Amino acid sequence: MPRKLKLKLKRPLPQPEGERTERLIASMVMYLTNECHLSPNTIQAYSRDLQRFRTWLGTNNPTTLTIAQLSDYVAWLHSQNLAPASVARHIISLKVFFRYLQLEGIMQDNLAELLGCQKLWQKIPSVIPPYQIDDFLTAPWSEDLYWRRDRAILEVLYACGCRASEIAGLDTKNVHLNEGHCRLHGKGNKQRIVPLGKKAIAACLQYLEKERPKLAARGFDSPAFFLTRTGRPLRREAIWELVKKYARRAGIDPAVSPHTLRHSFATHLLAGGADLRQVQELLGHASIATTQIYTHVDQTRLKKVHAAFHPRA
Q1: Each residue's pLDDT tens digit, 237-267
Q2: Of residues 148, 163, 263, 268, which has the active-site annotation?
Q3: Which of 212, 262, 263, 268 is catalytic?
């Protein structure tokens, strides 16, 4: 009788730890996207932070790290000259990653939870003074290719106090110029309705009549309100570049960003006598504690309060 052949099954080669960690990070990103429905910006931030963790980890196994080693990672983050807020976000990203490994049954204990959160100093935001606002908002002019679009972007940023990502995600169906407001989608997909001022409405009407039809005719058929020269939605990075371009032209600090306009919006409202709760609602802040930082920015308001109420003023 013929002998039976014994087949030797090849064992899969052990996967290098670096590749395994890379795969786990990619799997977590898919989970956050499909199951948790986090915003793309949040997912990108987690992904970037974990790639830095992956660089520090090297060929080590993340599931065997001790609390002392995790503390070394935090110390290494500080050595990279990161801002305290960035270090704090990296720690949160690591905690989320380890929670995911627990959820998948890959590890039992989440030692990252033992890492303390960074104590952050409250940084007073910089704002554009009111006397410079007009020069800045009118910096786009006919010498620029799409100056009507750019002026409308600056006007809406300042009129609504919105984020660059909210401008980039603004659809035409959510801009109601006749009613004088727009619907914004903020962090966590929270929606809020914010009034548009007369100048912002006028700038948007000019853009809609003179420029957007030409941009939309490029064939991309995007519902986005603000379009690129190819008819695609304008990215938030492009909005940052536009803000810096016109800040330089207006002779303003080049460190200005779309968020500077958001800070200016809130500060100027409070200086004009707006209630803090109203400003909180317009900004879309979940907690009024976040909005309170603006009470420290306007020194003239504080002086008026001091003069009106302090017995020795």
Answers
A1: 999 999 999 999 999 987 899 999 999 999 8
A2: 163
A3: 262
